[in-house]
Amino acid sequence: MTESADVKQYDVLIIGAGPSGTSCALALHQAGLKVAIIDKSEFPRDKVCGELLHKKAVETLNAILPGFEKDFINFSKTLVLKHTTVHYKGKSLTFDWVSESYTCPRLEFDNYLLNTVRKYTSTDIFTATVPDKITVTDDGVTLTIKNSPVIYSAKIIIGADGAHSTVAKQLTEKTLDRAHYLGAVRAYYKNVKNTDNVTSEVFFSSKYNLNYLWVFPIEGNLSNVGFGLLSSNISENKINLKESFYDYFKQSPELAEKFADAEQVSTLEGFGVPLGSTIGTVSGKRFMLIGDAASLSNPLSGTGMGNAVMSGKIAADQLIRSFKANDFSAEFMKGYDNVLQSSIVDGLYSSYKAQRTLSKLPFLLDIVFFIGKNKRIRKYIQSIV
Ligand SMILES: Cc1cc2nc3c(=O)[nH]c(=O)nc-3n(C[C@H](O)[C@H](O)[C@H](O)COP(=O)(O)OP(=O)(O)OC[C@H]3O[C@@H](n4cnc5c(N)ncnc54)[C@H](O)[C@@H]3O)c2cc1C
């Protein structure tokens, strides 16, 4: 296909400018490839999320771009968290973490990452651009755009377009597996009692099969408050997730007291969380899936940004190998699957087993409470959430 007014040619098309897509573009900054990011949303845009960022996400970005961590910690919207207090049956236990975590509103964080891509790479960024049809041939990939005559052409396409990925829908047989998918809701509150800027809190309830409600501090004296349940549980028991969120407060006298003067300052919004524990189809001829599009969120905690960032970096490494070998075959792309399996998915399987064991044997949580004071146990817990 030759360059014309309506055909834009690239080496790599990344669909989605969330943490996975921007990390992939950043990791390609010295690869000498012509890269485009296409996102359906106008930025800055919000993304329903608990907004707790694990250290490993920031460490991975810092390995890609030395100095990232320092700049991010100094970003005015970032909070550095040192502790988590877990509440269960009227008891509470505070974990002083071995390494800190962060919160940053997604409206700000994702825009920060996209601006970092603008600053350090020559990536072309197309926002408010909605993909339509993806076609893979022996020579490359083409993408048409809704309500536009423009066609994007590339050697390979990366699906970084989240839980409802159009790339995954069009290029794989992937279907929604409710046993490995969370429905989750989130709202912002102010005037929540006994909060500080360095402690995240989670409240377990035995009524909701050991799922937890989180209260995470957000810059500007706000709390990000949310709750998620397995989709299989929601559909089998006909649970209304939004009603359950408010019911959760009634289950716990501590929560009722904590929120006695609180004011909800945003609507309660929901979104899906695709959980990882086994690897599905994450690559094929001329494509790879990263982040939520590849179902990489942690089954125990529901967090996915760390693995989104890591998978973006792993995909970028595979892209560099593919361009060097000029090989975009499904077989060659398995190199991505293999690294993803050993670096991320094997660990998610441990979290999945822990999640299943705890939900079948809830009394174990009492034991975890008891032994969680031990530093080695705390370190292990931090490695699986
Ligand atoms: C309620 C809730 C709470 C959560 N809490 C946490 C938490 O505290 N910590 C944590 O680490 N993780 C959390 N997660 C998970 C986390 O949000 C995701 O794992 C993470 O956002 C995945 O990043 P991503 O880049 O793969 O996808 P996304 O962040 O979803 O980004 C996808 C991007 O693709 C764009 N897009 C979507 N569809 C298309 C399309 N068809 N064409 C073009 N562009 C498209 C979107 O506009 C978006 O910019 C939570 C999720 C939910 C729902």
TrEMBL record:
A Pfam family matched in the record: FAD_binding_3
GO molecular function: FAD binding; oxidoreductase activity, acting on the CH-CH group of donors, NAD or NADP as acceptor
Domain of life where this protein originates: Bacteria
Transmembrane intervals: none
Every FAD-binding domain range: 10-312
NCBIfam families: GG-red-SF
Descriptive protein name: FAD-binding domain-containing protein
Organism in which the protein naturally occurs: Flavipsychrobacter stenotrophus
